[in-house]
Design goal:
Cytochrome Bc1 Complex, Chain D, domain 2; 7 helices; 2 domains; elongated; mainly alpha
Length: about 150
């Protein structure tokens, strides 16, 4: 360290310029390979971005909801209070279409039903975090289908 300091003090050349290059004989080939790999990675990343932007962010409108899963989720979690589309806690607030239109904030829509399922209200618990997104989407589709088709 003392030698370097003395040499630096007596030399007009900056310390970094006095150092020997540490490159090996293959450094030119390695640099070329690195440039090729970088170009390939950049092209791949660009292609992935274009593909992501071109693909829809939501399921297509023609996707069929999993009503069987929805029925299973409903029977395993909701039927304790809503057997047959009824409401054992507040009898007027059933899962019949007319009752949903009247009592559910947002009226009769899949979005309003989903909000109620995810967030709960009053005696109804929030199911967000207890059910995964696929289960929530399926039970919403099931309730909507049952009410819309007067199947309760």
């Amino acid at each position: 360290m003392a030698l370097l300091s003395r040499a630096a003090a007596t030399s007009n050349v900056a310390p970094a310029a006095r150092r020997r290059p540490t490159a090996c004989a293959h450094s030119a080939a390695a640099a070329a390979n690195h440039k090729t790999a970088s170009a390939t990675a950049t092209a791949t990343a660009a292609a992935l971005i274009v593909a992501a932007l071109a693909s829809p962010l939501v399921a297509p409108a023609h996707a069929t909801p999993d009503l069987a899963l929805g029925a299973n989720v409903f029977n395993g979690n909701c039927a304790a209070c809503h057997t047959g589309g009824k409401n054992n806690v507040i009898p007027d607030r059933t899962l019949q279409k007319a009752a949903i239109e009247q009592y559910l904030t947002g009226g009769f829509s899949a979005e309003a039903i989903e909000y109620q399922v995810r967030n709960g209200k009053g005696a109804m618990p929030a199911w967000e975090g207890r059910l995964d997104d696929d289960e929530i989407e399926a039970v919403v589709a099931y309730v909507y289908d049952q009410a819309a088709g007067d199947k309760w």
